[in-house]
Amino acid sequence: MKKLFALLLTLAMVLSLAACGAKEEAPADKGENAPAAEETGSVYYLNFKPEFDEALQGLAKTYTEKTGVEVKVVTAASGTYSDTLTAEMAKDEAPTIFNIGNMSGLKDWDEYALDLKDTALAGELNTDGFNLYNEAGELKAMGHCFESFGIIVNVDLLNAAGYELSDITNFETLKACADDIHARAGELGFDAFTSAGLDGSSSWRFSGHLVNMPLFYEFRDDGVVEQPATVTGAYLDNFRNIWDLYITDSSADAKTLSTSTGDESKAMLTEGKAVFYQNGSWEYASLTEAGLTNLAMIPIYCGVEGEEKAGLCSGTENCWAVNSQVSEADQKASLDFLYWLVTDAEAAQVVVDQLGAIPFKSAPESANGFLADGNELASAGNYTVTWAFNHTPNVDSFRATLVTALTAYSADPTDANWDAVVSAYVDGWAIEYATVNG
Amino acid sequence: MAKKKVTNVNLVQRPIKKWAPLFILPTFAAFCIGFVWPFLQGIYLSFCNFNTPKDAKWTGIVNYTKVFSDAGFMNAFKNTAAFAIVSIILINVVAFFIAYALTQKLRGSNLFRTVFFMPNLIGGVVLGYIWSMIFDGILKQYGTYLTANGTYGFWGLVILVAWQQIGYMMIIYIAGLQAVPEDMLEAARIDGANSKETLFKVIIPNVMPAITTCTFLTLTNSFKMFDQNLALTGGLPSVIENGAKVNVTELLALNIYSTYNINKNWHGVAQAKAVVFFILVAVLAIAQQAATRSKEVQQ
Q1: Is the pTM above the cut of 0.95?
Q2: Which of A132, A244, A399, B257 could form a disulfide with A207 if both were Cys (CB 3.0 to 4.6 A apart)?
Q3: Of A13, A256, A407, the CB nearest to B26
Q4: Is residue A244 part of a domain?
Q5: Secondary-structure breakdown of chain B: helix, strand, coil percentages, each rounded to the nearest 5
């Protein structure tokens, strides 16, 4: 028995040595092939959107078959992109294409991003609105798709309650309609709003997206275009208006929103138990698959003057950056691949199907009904509510404080508790700004 | 039976000793690659501003000054200390008495041992989410919720960790209790010691090695607590106190983790916190070992 044990241990040791040896051989092997790879370059795309992974892998394969250029696609698990990117960038074979989400992401990765201004890819853009520029004015990250959020409406239920979509044009009409539906909920069999859950799976809809309303309007008034050190909270009363509506005109218990999840909220819409659901264009496919056919997305109204002319909140956290620290051949191969993605008819169709709308000249139309609603509003001359929240400093921490305050306020909606929300917004911003820039 | 051989021990051992370095080499190399090098690099990086380890720039002790002026870190330190004290006492006392009870030849004691040990087999993140549902379900009856204040979160974590670790420590204590020499117990009985005297004068001094092990494990576990903290409350509630941001139920490891994720200027600070954290845990663990070892008796 002892002998057998010793034998096994020796075997394990030999195997581990052999494993080490094998690893060392790998780069030597590469060395021989390296010159060939240098000439054409290769692409390593570190993908940000898990739902885009499968399609992107397919596109990469097609591209390799067509051109012979090697394209490797790796997708970071949901919520771990910055960790994965940091780890991958430290390697010798770093990603050649990666994602930068917003201005603070650009500050972290500025040194790694190539200026894309004079590339053929940039020439294909039909708008400059989603791009990220650094302080030197270089185009460092290119917004390659955009999304919209607003209030999703189940039009069939709205009609059943005796209202038309055109009846809702501002906060007063929205409130009148929602209050009426809530009052008649027992008789109608459905309520106005889905639950405003503040569980981690749902709270970003409010601490991130809904808070965009007061941020957008105060930045518009103050002409803010860069991350400000402080915010005023001038429109927080409007934020309170819409939040009160969400928690009052709903069948969900406002005292226990901290445990109410995103799935619960979505189920209330798909099961026909509520008319209004705040979320974004990315939900279109899953909602239509759930059998909802008559859906629309309307702007978030919160009682700001002139909001009858508001559009949807549109923006992106998906911006391509090309790694400036890899070889020129790899940079060129990466730019060529991206160019092909948005100009090749078949490839662009796949990208549009997966990402919704993409801001490139030759891209096909999107089948996403919510983005179509957004386009319609924009064509009618309504102003687009941009993603002001992209300026948020230390965004996760800022949102956590806001969620804490909102949860306490929802359980007990007093003025004192609202003051904590105001403080989380105004003081929280200043603290996070000092943290990030200090 | 063959006739007895006389072996010269030195003759056998000498060639083995000569080759010892070769046999040590694989493990030693793995230890260097997997531990020593990253550890030294970690200390170096704690003095740098870096995004990836490749672009580290030396900045001196700036990171360390930021560590000690961070209200969040000080709060996490206080939480961790309080949590460690409470959980060390609770876990060890309860585990010891369960082990004591289960070595009294009760019916079904094997079943109880298995059942008490089982929570230890579930991963920390899963436990955190399950217990957050349990606590929220209970607190809902009283119109409140787990992250409403720091007290619920703190005691929630204590209950969770006690539930998880008591079974494990119990096994160690059972082994320790079974190793108490029967003749010693018999002698105590003959000398007329009552059960209380037997427990404190005979059994406990004899299980001191198990107590050393268990306090060491609970101490280091409490300080390194991460998954359960992340999954149960995630540090929430997050409030503003005296002009500084504080995550009320955050422990040290989670604080280090969230510091790293602020932005690249905080990577070095998180690294510095990790070094401070290491020194703290090492000093405490060594002190604890010295303190409990001195109470151990020779059997």
Answers
A1: no
A2: A399
A3: A13
A4: yes
A5: 75, 5, 20
